[in-house]
Amino acid sequence: MNQQIVVLLRMAAIFSLLSLIIAGCGSRDVTVALSASEHFERGMELYEDEDYSRAVNEFRIVVRQFSGSEYADDAQFYMGMSYFNRGEYILAANEFERLVNTMSGSPFVADAQYKLAMSYYNLSPRYDLDQEYTYKAIDEFQAFVDFFPTNELVPEAEGRIHELNEKLARKQYENAKLYMRMRYYRAATRYYGIVIEQYHDTEYAESAHVGMVEALMAREMYDEANETIQQFHRRFPNSDKRSRMETLQQRIVAELEDENDEDANNGPDTPQTTTGEISGENEL
Fold it and tell me: Could you tell me the domains of the chain?
């Protein structure tokens, strides 16, 4: 009888122990509901530790589950910053743009606009590749300057715009030079014209004027070439390319004199050679 009691007591003890173990395991599966501030603080701790992937998860919870809280715009901004710091600039741009467009009252709007521009700036490739992101970066930097003219980052934004315009000018200028080498003077004229009119404040503007005169001369468009020379002198009175322009102008004068002499000698009934035949210009 005593032996049966001992066995029962042992079984009861084992059952109690198993119950405690099961209860302990179950307690670890209980999800503790965190507030918006707690999720945001946890995200910021991860952000400061440069654990950006896990930080994004916390910030996303705040934005989606607590969209009406005071932490929503903070989380939106730092979600963009987490992607930005990881070099995922397209994702970063999406998050910054969402803040600018949907949280216009946030104190983070100016910073988000600048970081949106910087995201595209970092995606801008070298000059000879497609410049889609370069144009986007310029547009976003310009929006920053227009909407936040007193912001301390405006001078830096304007510097970025100038830098990107230099890249675009170089692309057009190199295109023009390529067409000149191929003797596609019409196309060269078009691309030099883009540099002259759209990127007149870049380092390529002076050389583009020289190239334009040479292309027009090759097409025997001497009046237009002279107009370009005069424009050059007005815009760049102290240019080191003035001597080159003066040489080209002398050549134009000589060409016109030769044409006048030839016309006088040939008389009115002599067949005239077409411009395309004289210059050997390819059409493009």
Answer: 173-261 (1.25.40.10)
75-95 pLDDT, tens digit each:
999 999 999 999 999 999 999
Q: How far is CA 93 from CA 114, 247, 266, 268, in A?
A: 10, 51, 68, 68
**Token pair for 149:** 């003219």
Token pair listed for 234 = 């007005």
3-state per-residue secondary structure call for the chain? CHHHHHHHHHHHHHHHHHHHHHHHHHHHCCCCCCCHHHHHHHHHHHHHCCCHHHHHHHHHHHHHHCCCCCCHHHHHHHHHHHHHHCCCHHHHHHHHHHHHHHCCCCCCHHHHHHHHHHHHHHHCCCCCCCCHHHHHHHHHHHHHHHHCCCCCCHHHHHHHHHHHHHHHHHHHHHHHHHHHHCCCHHHHHHHHHHHHHHCCCCCCHHHHHHHHHHHHHHCCCHHHHHHHHHHHHHHCCCCCCHHHHHHHHHHHHHHHHHHHHHHHHHCCCCCCCCHHHHHCCCCC
- pTM of structure: 0.81
How far apart (Å, rounded) are the C-alpha atoms in residues 144 and 138? 10
Side chain identity at 245, as an amino acid letter? Answer: M
CA distance 40 to 85: 18
Share of the chain above pLDDT 90, in %: 78
| Rounded alpha-carbon distances, angstroms, from residue 137 to 6, 117, 157 | 82, 5, 10
Residue 258 pLDDT class (50, 70, 90 cuts) = confident
